[in-house]
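Can anyone check this?
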Amino acid sequence: MKTMSVSCNATIPVESTITDRLVEVIEKCCAMIIPKVSVNVALTLCDDMHIQEINHTYRKKDEVTDVLSFPMLASSCAGTITYTPLDIDPETQEVMLGDVIISYERAQVQAKAFNHSIERELSYLAVHSMLHLVGYDHIDVNDKKIMREKEEEILSSLGISR
């Protein structure tokens, strides 16, 4: 039986309706992208200073960013993950997919700049990050187009539009 769990940690005050919505978004991503795999995702909402520290520590980029993705598994192509029995938690039978870290402060700024709601911006960032966890990327023009189409497909399925 497929299961899904999202552990949500906020290092800043965030309304529970926002975290509940992001958990729903992440669950939808998994259902649409890797429907047969039981996974666990760690979500952290933080401020700009915290995400800048993480970006500097792990990516050697001393700058604020909106979202970071840290996949725990290899991906051979977009929308797939590779795991072994050792990657499965014996208690939950879930595979740890990875970490999603979102700067709530940066999302607020971007929502205002793009003239849409904070819910839409946070949802977009969560979907974007989840796609990175399963191998999607936007390095070249074709990959970017494919990733953007998948982002919009997932957001639309949740009733989230621009």
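Reply from J.R.: I decoded it. The CA atoms of residues 34 and 79 lie 7 Å apart.
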